[in-house]
Structure formats: C-alpha cells, structure tokens
Amino acid sequence: MEGPPSSDAPDGGENAPTPAEGSELHGTPEHDRQDGGFPTPSPWAIAFAVVALLAFGVGLGVWTRPQESAPALLASAPSPAATGTTTTSTSTSTSETEASSEPEEESKEASSEEESAGGEEEGSSGEEPSGAGKGAKEQESEESGSKGSESEEEPSGKGSQGSGSRGKSETSTLPPIKHVFVIVLGEQGYEAAFGASSQAPYLASTLRQQGELIGGYFAVASGQLANEIALISGQGPTPQTLTGCPTYEQLSPGKSGSEGQALGTGCLYPISALTVGDQLVAAGDTWKAYVQGLGEGSSASLQGKCPRPAAGASDPYSTASTSSPFVTWRDPFLYFDSVTSSSNCAEENVGIGELAKDLEAANTTPSLSYIAPDPCEDGDPAGCGSGAPAGLPAAEGFLKKVVPEIESSAAYKEGGMIAIAFDQAPQSGTGADDSGCCATPKYPNLPASDPTTTATGQPVGGGRVGMLLLSRYVKPGSSYVTGQYNHFSLLASVEALFKLQTLGYAENVQLPSFEKAVYNAYP
Question: Which of 41, 126, 311, 436 could connect to 459 by a Cys-Cys bridge, CB 3.0–4.6 Å?
Fold first, then answer.
C-alpha cells in the first residue's frame, strides 16, 4: 500500500499539503521529525490508531457494563422463566438498552409503592401503640405481610386461630376510626325493630336519621350467646352455646380445627381461642365489656371481680329477674380462658355504670367498647320477669341514656363509630326467622344432621336483624341496600379498622366486610 506524500518536501513545494489535505494532528512541516531521528507517524497512521483505541474503549465498556449493573438488574428484573424472555449481555442496540431499563423502572415503581405504603402506615389514623403491642404488630407484619396500606402498623395479636390473610380488604379505603362502640341488643327481627310499625321510635326514627341503616345484616346462629360469641371471636356455635350455657363447662376436647375453630362440646373456650379483645391488648390498644346489671342486686358481690362462674358448675346467673338483672351470657368474653385467666379480667368486664366515667376523656375510653343491656332492657320480648317492662319499648330507655352519652364524648367526636344490632331474630313464634347470608359455614361442633339451608334455600343463620351505624363517616339518614353482612362481617370490619388479623370465620375470603360503600361520608 502506497503511503501519503513524503514530509521531506520543502515548504511551499509541490508536495506540501494544502489546508484541506493537512491535519492538525501532525503539526507543521518543521516539526515532522523530532530529536533522536524517529519519524513522526503519518496522519493516516495516527487516525487509524485513534479509531482503534476508540473501538477498544467501546468494546471494553460493553463487556464490563452488564457485570457492573448485575446486582441492580437481579434485584429488580423478573426472571426469564417468569417473563418468557432472554437477554443478550453483549448486545449494545438501543432496543436492548430500553429493555434492560424496564426492570429498573418497574423496580423504582415498586419501591415507590412500598415507600408510599410505609408512609401511610406511619402517618394515618389512630395513636401509635407502644411497648410490647407495637413490637407484636411489627413482628406480625414481617410474618404475614400487608393487609392494607393506611395502617400505622401491620396486623397483630393473632395467636393460633387462623392465618389472618383474607387478602381482600384494602384498609387504605377505611376511615381513621379510633373508638368503636358496639351495642348488642336482644332478640328482635329487622321489621319489628326498624319497620314502619316499630315500637322503638327513638331507634327506628330519631337515631335512624342520624346514621346509616344496613338492612341486609344477619345473625349467624339460633342462640343468643352463640351469636354474641361469634361476633367477638369468629367461633361457630356448640350445642351448649346455643342454649345459653346453663352449665359452665370446658369445651372438650378443645383442639384446633380448620378455619380457626376450637372443636368439641361445651362453652368455655380454651386459651388458644382468642377474642378481638385479646388482639387489641396484644396490639397495645384497649377494650372493655360494659354489661348492665353486673355488680347490682344479687350480683353485687361480683363488683370489682372477674364475674366468671365456677368451671364445671351450674351458672348462678343464667337467668334474669327484676331483682337480679345480670346474666353471664350477655357478656360473651366470659366464655374464653384467654380473658378470664387474665389479671385484667375484672377491669375489662364491668358494669354499665363505668361507661360514663370512662367517656370523660378520650384517653380513658377503650378502643373497643362492647355494650350489653340486661334482659330487662335489651329489647327481647321475653323481658326479665313477670310484670317487668319488656320488648322494644324497654330498649328505648337504655338507648336514650347510653347513646347521647357516647355521642357527647371526646372519644366519639375525634373519630368514633357506634354500631347497634340485635343478637338474633326470633327463632320461634311470630316473626320467626332462621335465615342467614354471606357464606355461612357448616359448623363442625353441631350434629351433622343440622340443615345447611332453610326451607326457602337460604343459609341457616339467626335471621335478619339489621344494623344502625352512627359516625361522622356515614351519611345521616342513609341506607345501605346493595350488600349483606353478618356478625362475622362485623368482627372482620372492626379488626380491619384497628389493623388486626382476622379470627375464625371472619377470615373467610368470601365474607364481606365494611368497605367504602358503607363508610359513605368518608372521602
């Protein structure tokens, strides 16, 4: 190959390069030869060397780039098996560069979502639990994952009953309710309580105009105690809880079954069976059962004590009278070893007179208040004895006293909700109703011969009872008519508000719980 013209030609000579042909790379002719006699490389040689050097640098960069970014790509990119694609590490095309950046973008989006969820968890409703309760929540969060995105912490206080992974409620859509007041009345059906001819105008009209009526709300069994136990624990009925547990006997054998159920006959649940109260305590929150009649009349000796009957003996407080209105079965928490064996049992199961005192300040008001009138004033037509007021008119007096006390409290005003429901509909006589809803299960502790559906084809339950919700997060005078709920639903809904895992049958993924449509005044 013939090289370029010789650089020995004199300046201005025939072979001198013109400005167009020259190059700034080799300088002027007088510098063509350096000291020592070594010739300066020709411009073509220098150009070739520069191109080669650049090519080597590009090749080296391409070879090293996948190795340098591998940790980030492995952390963010989906596996080839999951995506059905492969990548070639030596390709430098634009299309591969875009493809390799997609996993990084997905990783950034996922990281952003996680940071957003974490921010919501740290800065939403409720006060920050302290002490062991907070640690329990964080541990459950690591073990079971997120159930929602607005909570301060993850669900906690689960114990051994169920996995708590319903996987369907998004707590980011729930209002920041800090105090829930559940008022559980006696045996009445929906039409009798809330219908046009109701004998309880304060409930069916005055309070109805303040809140939201959920017409499709059902009891889950044909026994008052069984329904109350279901509401606080997710446990299904036993033959003994259906009859009010006249003998306070241990559930035997009491072993754990599927869906978080304690199996056997009896009515005193083993310590492995938890209540929503146990969950709240584990989460650093508080609860109380306010039971009318407790500590009054013949039960005065129970004042300041855990009102638990002697195990294996007949319950001396299984029936009510005007002189002794307290009955054990109006307080379902007393049927759980996890509650009655606690040193706080006497402080958490108190007479109704304690409610007004606790409502004096928000920080003395429990997170969950379970409020139960005695049989004289719970609305049950049977009442509590001959000549005593009975039925809905008797319940009116109780509601007129208790509801305004709650509504005027700081705890209710800062983010409270009152839920008023009956434990079951009448199971015999006029208005008898044993219908149910919402994936009612086949209860394992009842005889196999028990029907699973009513004569009309509906699930067997405790009848339609309705529920009234009072809160600034529901629209006054509104009705919810598009869905159905039951006592297990209410338990799941309360657990969702406090970021707790679900217990027993409340865990059923087919079971509806209160969502945005129910909280119809929440943005």
Answer: 436
